[in-house]
Amino acid sequence: MDARPGRENGDGMAEAGTTRFWVGASTVGALGSPARGIRSLDLDADGRWALGDPIDVGPNPMFLAVSGAAGVLGIVHELAEGRISSWTFEGDGLSPFSRVGVASGDPCHLAFTESGELAFAANYSGHRVTVHPLAPDASADSVLEAEFSGTGPNLDRQTGSHPHQVVLDHERDRLLVPDLGADRIRIVGLGMLPEALEHDEHADIVIHPGAGPRHLVVSGGLAVTANELDRTASVIDLVEGRELAWFPIGPDTETRGLGCSAIRLTRGGIVLIGDRDADALRGLRLDVEARTLELVATVATGGRHPRDLELSRDERFALVADQGSDSIAIVALDGEGVPLGLVDTVATPAPACLARVS
Question: What is the pTM for the complete model shown?
Fold first, then answer.
């Protein structure tokens, strides 16, 4: 176990005020060094950290999600023939839960129902969302799916549907699925579960052409999308089902074709977005009444290719997974959640996801 030099070791990190994350990573070496598995990362209220040893959970565990209700860690293995695995927490280790299940092509995101009995996977090249039952020693193979079609004006990236995330919209009993390839937020109803998913393409929310919506966050009746392809963030009215406006995340950067990545919303109303063109964390203030976004802060992460980000439980820090530089940036936040500056860096191979446990 690695700990920050001169600070507490792993045995001192399980105290009150500590946030535990699990770090998903690429094992194939396409971007960053090949990882040997996933690992825990503990962060205390003063920014001190301890990094667990790698645990082999199978190939390319690129995205992780935690079901607090079930006490289960879900993993999508981003492969041409995608896989889903699930694990229970055993101290600092993991034990298999369900048997490994079959998804579709290149699953890249996972979300649980409130009970943790079902998991939804977004399959990037499979053009669909799949549903996976999770139970001890049972198969996690897909049992339902919603398939999408469509294109966009970007001939390099939008030749077909590319679902990139699955978000449960609990208030409206549905899934919100950003589709990078078709400039849509797919609306998938859950009222007929476990027998069926409901999808009517006429109910999908249309995003402006060439945006490439990647991820989103929900704030009451609004959502904010991080649009990968044109480096904007859109404000969406979830009740009316329409895009209200879109805003640049930072016009001061030369575009390298990498664009926006992950997005989070702080309790203080600050939208945090990873900017892979600038290798930075952007902070934008969401005005719910005016339905606008204003760029208020930019902090360079000191690494390359910020793929994912997550907040500490007390929201004093944002962690940013810089996959291309084999590092995780720890960025201090103010009381609203505005990024203040880089305070530390954790070295670990090809981090692609940060899943918060507590």
Answer: 0.95
* Tens place of pLDDT per residue across the chain (358 aa): 776 643 333 333 446 789 999 999 999 999 999 999 999 999 999 999 999 999 999 999 999 999 998 999 999 999 999 999 999 999 999 999 999 999 999 999 999 999 999 999 999 999 999 999 999 999 999 999 999 999 999 999 999 999 999 999 999 999 999 999 999 999 999 999 999 999 999 999 999 999 999 999 999 999 999 999 999 999 999 999 999 999 999 987 777 778 999 999 999 999 999 999 999 999 999 999 999 999 999 999 999 999 999 999 999 999 999 999 999 999 999 999 999 999 999 999 999 999 999 7
**Per-residue 3-state assignment (H helix, E strand, C coil) for the chain:** CEECCCCCCHHHCCCCCCEEEEEEECCCCCCCCCCCCEEEEEECCCCCEEECCCECCCCCEEEEEEECCCCEEEEEECCCCCEEEEEEEECCEEEECCECEECCCCEEEEEECCCCCEEEEEECCCCEEEEEECCCCCECCCCEEEECCCCCCCCCCCCCCCECCCEEEHHHCEEEEEECCCCEEEEEECCCCCCCCEECHHHCEECCCCCCEEEEEEECCEEEEEECCCCEEEEEECCCCEEEEEEECCCCCCCCCCCEEEEEECCCCEEEEEECCCCEEEEEEEECCCCEEEEEEEEECCCCCEEEEEECCCCCEEEEEEHHHCEEEEEEECCCCCEEEEEEEEECCCEEEEEECC
